[in-house]
Design a protein that fits this description.
The complex is a heterotrimer of chains A (124), B (421) and C (479).
Chain A lengths: L3 E5 L8 E6 L5 E4 L4 H12 L2 E2 L2 E7 L5 E6 L3 E2 L3 H10 L1 E3 L7 E3 L9 E3 L9
Parallel strand pairs in A: 5-8
Antiparallel strand pairs in A: 1-2, 2-3, 4-7, 5-6, 6-10, 9-10
Chain B lengths: L1 E10 L3 H12 L4 E4 L15 E3 L8 E2 H13 L4 E4 L2 E6 L8 E7 L3 E12 L3 E3 L2 H4 L9 E3 H11 L1 E2 L3 E5 L3 H12 L3 E7 L8 H8 L6 E3 L1 E7 L6 E8 L2 E2 L5 E4 L2 E4 L3 E3 L2 H6 L23 E3 L10 H19 L8 E5 L3 E5 L2 E2 L5 E7 L3 E10 L2 E11 L5 E5 L1 H4 L10 E5 L1
Parallel strand pairs in B: 1-2, 1-8, 2-5, 8-21, 10-19, 12-13, 12-19, 13-14, 22-29
Antiparallel strand pairs in B: 3-4, 6-7, 7-8, 9-20, 15-16, 16-17, 16-18, 22-24, 23-25, 25-28, 26-27, 26-29
Helix pairs in contact in B: 1-2, 1-8, 4-5, 5-6
Chain C lengths: L5 E7 L3 H10 L6 E4 L16 E2 L10 H11 L1 H8 L3 E2 L3 E5 L2 H16 L6 E4 H7 L9 E5 L3 E3 L1 H14 L3 E3 L4 E7 L2 E6 L4 E9 L5 H8 L7 E10 L10 E3 L10 E4 L5 E4 L3 E2 L11 H13 L8 E11 L6 E4 L6 E5 L5 H18 L25 H10 L6 E3 L4 E2 H9 L5 H8 L12 H12 L18 E2 L1
Parallel strand pairs in C: 1-2, 1-12, 2-9, 5-14, 12-20
Antiparallel strand pairs in C: 3-8, 4-8, 5-7, 6-7, 10-11, 11-12, 13-16, 13-17, 13-18, 15-16, 19-20, 21-22
Helix pairs in contact in C: 1-6, 1-9, 2-9, 11-12, 11-13
Classes of the chains: A alpha+beta (124), B alpha/beta (421), C alpha+beta (479).
């Protein structure tokens, strides 16, 4: 890829406008940043963009019908659709503890899907 | 009818209410929390995304995780009664020793007559709706405020629709754009009246750019179409602040989500006769966050709409400290005025303590990098601070200590003017 | 056809006119059916009614609508005692802001005198301002009709129908009349969904579609032209709200833009008057806002757009000539036409229903009074009207009175359940019956609770719940 990618850095509220190119030899060059964080962010966005994914999954055994969940680390973007599909097939039964792992090491990325709240079992 | 007396009543069991109640209880006072939902946590329960607690815990938590920490803190506090599924619907007559009396309506508890020496208004905010902004067109099903749709989706598990247009690029709208897309719905665009997005840049990137959702800046939804269910919207560009309907284009959709601002939810405050600040929509408060009604305090989104829950918690805890002083008969009355100066829309609170530390929150009127916060008394500069980036949608907070006042507070004109240069 | 009985009377259209007629007929030993094409009653023209009980001075006694308005006006106190809808005789003022306008007001006063309106008076500037301190101090004089008032139109219509139902009338909603066959001594009425009803007599009270219904019967040809009116609802905490209904001097097209203190304590400003083509066009527009508020501030200067909670539009069914058309069809025996009932239709409704009853009698319908006809509706307690102590009493017999669903308007779960059990299964129907969703937050906090209650009470899935009938489903599916 030799084209230039333009994006806004989100590492801090300033929002530097970055330009990121991959040179012929494979080297990544980031410009427009005012600090190190921008350089790191620019590189990652180009090479291996990741995001924390949050969602809800079906919950049974409680008056609450949905359990909020998140990936405990940012997940590579190319796997997000698969994760969401897998999550939509999940049905978790209360009681659940905050932090409980619902899907471990998704697609060998080292990223778990965990519950973000504790729910007691109750008539539901 | 059950009647109960407390030292303090806290109205609202969200982030502000939980923090305030825990701190008042820690001060050794009896406190009751009234919460109309089935659980504590307020709007945090439906904010399943992350970004909470970066300041308070130095962690990136989701809303439910943040809420749970405070729920647990409250649960382990003694001297706190939590009334869930209870709405403070009516205000009663003031008693001699308990000037604050309210009636809590609940199917669980019946009608409760609750009285106290002090109260904390922490009911949060409500959303500006279609009626407030008057979008012309038909009245089909499918027009919702973004927070309402968020609740339906995240708590109840229902999609508001399948193809949505979002009005307003505030954070709630942006977050919902991503949430709907991740839930299998299609978001056709976000329409923003200003020439810049009103939410955080990181949200524009992660919620719109990631999905290729178009952001139409300087545009408005000029018409909603569809008789029984939304069928589409007309989007018009603004030129010189006026919608040019000749240049309108149509987006076919079945849902319109409105993310057009939040308003402090002052139903109960009005019933209590609390004076309101037209700039914030919330109560006018003194340096200790006490309203115009003696013993009634306000904090959190009810006082003024925040962007970060961390500031809500901080504000609520400080408010609670003042409530404790009030209950102990030690409330500091020596206070002077605070006035918003250049480029500042509002400052909260509206008074400062010359004799103790103050914490203020403000919103700017301008978008600027390398700006300067200036505090002046009688024309003399008291304090300055560099602000790398300032914009109306990002609240600024700052502290002012007595030593920094350098005696200026004893001047005849001792109003503190807060400006941005 | 087994099981198909013949009704004595089918009333077509469950707006205020059809509802009043149904209740009137429920006094007699008759099998009456009230047919309504929408999912609930009061969803047509009556939905956007301004809620005014008019003072009987806008037209002279030559107009049928004036005669029925005067008579109707006098009946509301008794109706309120029987049916418990919110109603208050606050009085009506017509304000003149110039000598010219005062001349027009004097003509209205003359109408009132000829119509024998009780208490109507002309007032000078000082008296006008004493009667209504919020009036424009430049007012020159005006007219005062103390018999005028304000009413909650939905509660009135629903109460009429409920009482009619309690006395044996059947209500069939979702019945859109698409065909009429003439049998021996009866009409076979067929709906779009294929439902069939037979009735010996029929009353066409179909509002905007009275012309189409008349055509289905093969009866008289006339054209209903919709005239749209937009109104704005102001917050009850707004400053400068008047205590009396304030009218300007009327124009050729309409009574003008009014300032209406509603019986609920809010205020409505409007309506506009624009003739349109499409009978389904209820769209609001931006340009009307400035027009309406300029006109309203001419009467009550302190009103402000900042206090707007919402706006909505309604359609008036106008007929050439402008008067009510209430007569037995000359072409089709046993059909009574009730068409072109625009303002003062609601005020006139109780009198219209008597008039129609007499027309039916003349057409041959035998009227035998029911000795056990009960004009009284049981009162549904509404927590917004009660003290906490009274609500506490109620919660002992039903804890759901303690559960606040709509905190803006103060509506309990028990009232929502009562609405659903009375047949109101759409969000709009529940809104009109209880006021939930009408307040400042416009349903932001109560709607998800109402969905839950509706699903529980009716057994239908939440995804099937609609705003106002099929096609207006709230949700897009379950996750």
């Amino acid at each position: 890829m030799t084209g230039e990618r333009r994006l806004v850095c989100i590492a801090c509220p300033v929002g530097c406008r970055l330009a990121i190119r991959q040179e012929e030899g494979g080297e990544i060059r980031v410009s427009g940043n005012q600090c190190e964080k921008g350089d790191t962010y620019g590189r990652e966005e180009l090479l291996a963009p990741r995001r924390v994914v949050t969602a809800t999954v079906r919950l049974t055994g409680s008056a609450l019908r949905r359990l909020p969940v998140k990936t405990h680390l940012p997940l590579p973007r190319e796997h997000i659709a698969a994760l969401l599909a897998e999550a939509s097939r999940l049905a978790v039964r209360a009681p659940v503890a905050r932090g409980q792992v619902l899907l471990a090491d998704f697609l060998a990325t080292g990223v778990d899907l965990v519950a973000t709240r504790t729910v007691e079992a109750s008539g539901g | 009818m059950t009647g109960k007396r407390y030292d303090a009543l806290v109205f609202g069991g969200g982030s502000a209410g939980m923090a305030a109640a825990a701190r008042i209880a820690a001060g050794g006072f009896s406190v009751a929390v009234l919460e109309r939902e089935r659980e504590l946590g307020g709007v945090l329960n439906q904010c399943i995304h992350s970004g909470f607690g970066l300041k308070v815990f130095r962690e990136d938590l989701t809303g439910p995780e943040y809420a749970e920490r405070y729920c647990q803190r409250l649960a382990s506090a003694s001297g706190v009664d939590v009334y869930l599924e209870t709405t403070a619907q009516e205000v009663g007559a003031a008693g001699a020793e308990t000037p604050l009396t309210v009636y809590g309506y609940s199917r669980l508890h019946g009608i409760l007559e609750l009285s106290a020496r002090a109260g904390v208004l922490a009911m949060g905010c409500r959303e500006r709706n279609r009626g407030n902004i008057g979008i012309p067109g038909t009245r089909p099903a499918g027009v919702y405020t973004a927070g309402f749709a968020q609740r339906l989706l995240n708590i109840d598990g229902y999609l508001p629709g399948r193809r949505a247009v979002i009005v307003g690029s505030g954070d709630i709208g942006l977050i919902m754009a991503r949430r709907l897309t991740w839930s299998g719905a299609e978001v056709l665009g976000v329409v923003e009246i200003q020439s810049y997005p009103s939410g955080l840049t990181r949200n524009v990137v992660q919620c719109l750019n990631d999905f290729g959702i178009p952001l139409h800046l300087s545009h408005v939804v000029s018409r909603i179409l569809g008789r029984n269910r939304v069928e589409g919207v007309e989007v018009s560009p603004l030129e010189d602040g006026v919608p040019k309907q000749e240049k309108a284009f149509r987006l076919d959709c079945d849902t319109v989500l409105l993310s057009v601002g939040l308003l402090p939810d002052t139903e109960l405050a009005k019933k209590l006769g609390v004076a309101l600040n037209p700039e914030t929509g919330g109560p006018l408060v003194d340096a200790g966050l006490q309203t115009s009604v003696a013993g009634v305090f306000a904090c959190g989104n009810l006082l003024h709409v925040h962007d970060l829950v961390d500031y809500v918690t901080e504000e609520a805890e400080r408010c609670a400290e003042r409530v404790c002083e009030y209950l102990a008969g030690e409330y500091e009355l020596a206070q002077h005025r605070v006035v918003p100066g250049a480029n500042v829309r509002y400052v909260v609170p509206n008074r400062y303590f010359p004799g103790r530390e103050n914490r203020f929150y403000l919103r700017a009127l301008v978008v600027k990098n390398q700006a300067r916060l200036e505090l002046r008394i009688g024309g003399e500069t008291v304090k300055q601070r560099r602000l790398a980036h300032v914009q109306p949608s990002e609240m600024v907070s700052f502290t002012l200590k007595p030593a920094e006042l350098a005696g200026l507070a004893s001047k005849a004109d001792n109003a503190l003017e807060v400006s941005i240069a | 056809m087994a099981g198909e009985s013949v009704y004595d009377v089918a009333v077509i259209g469950a707006g205020v006119i059809g509802a009043a007629i149904a209740r009137q007929l429920s006094c007699y030993r008759l099998n009456v059916v009230l047919l309504e094409k929408e999912a609930d009653a009061c969803f047509g023209i009556s939905k956007a009614n301004s809620g005014i009980i008019h003072g009987g001075f806008h037209h002279g006694p030559d107009a049928l609508k004036a005669r029925l308005e005067i008579l109707g006006n006098t009946l509301f106190d008794r109706l309120q005692r029987q049916l418990h809808f919110p109603f208050r005789r606050c009085g009506i003022l017509v304000a003149a802001l110039s000598v010219e306008e005062m001349k027009a007001v004097e003509k209205l006063y003359e109408n009132g005198v000829r119509n024998k309106v009780i208490g109507i008076e002309l007032a000078g500037r000082e008296r006008m301002l004493a009667l209504e301190p919020q009036l424009n101090p430049d007012v020159v004089g005006g007219l005062h009709a103390p018999s005028g008032g304000v009413i909650e139109p939905y509660r009135f219509v629903f109460a009429l129908i409920e009482n009619a139902q309690d006395n044996g009338v059947e209500l069939a909603t979702g019945f859109e009349l698409t065909g009429v066959e003439h049998e021996n001594g009866a009409f076979l009425l067929v709906s779009a969904q294929g439902r069939r009803v037979r009735a010996r007599y029929a009353v066409n009270a179909a509002g905007l579609y009275a012309d189409s219904v008349s055509a289905l019967f093969g009866a008289e040809q006339f054209t209903i032209v919709p005239r749209k009116g937009e109104e704005f609802l102001l917050d009850r905490n707004a400053k400068g709200l008047p205590g009396k209904v304030v009218f300007p001097v009327p124009t050729r097209l309409s009574k003008g833009i009014l300032v209406i203190p509603t019986v609920e304590g809010t205020c409505m400003v409007g309506p506009t008057a624009v003739e349109i083509q499409d009978k389904e066009d209820l769209a609001t527009s931006q340009s009307n806002l400035e027009l309406v508020f300029a006109a309203a501030r001419r009467l009550v200067p302190a009103l402000s757009e900042r206090d707007i909670i919402t706006s909505f539009a309604g359609l008036r069914p106008t007929l050439a000539g402008g008067d009510f058309l209430i007569e037995s069809s000359r072409r089709v025996p046993r059909l009574v036409q009730v068409a072109g009932i625009q303002s003062p239709g609601l005020t006139a409704a109780p009198a219209v229903s008597e008039y129609v009853k007499d027309l039916l009698k003349k057409a041959g319908l035998t009227l035998v009074e029911k000795p056990d006809w009960d004009p009284y509706l049981p009162e549904v307690p509404r927590i917004r009207e009660l003290t906490p102590f009274q609500v506490d009493e109620l919660t002992r017999r039903d804890p759901a009175y303690g559960e606040v669903v709509c905190r803006c308007e103060g509506v309990s779960e028990a009232e929502i359940v009562a609405a659903v059990r009375r047949g109101h299964r759409t969000l709009d129907g529940i809104k009109f019956y209880t006021r939930a969703q009408m307040g400042r937050c416009q349903g932001g906090f109560c709607t998800y609770r109402i969905l839950r209650i509706l699903a529980r009470e009716t057994g239908q899935p939440v995804e099937a719940i609609t705003k106002r009938g099929p096609g207006s489903e709230l949700l897009g599916g379950e996750l």
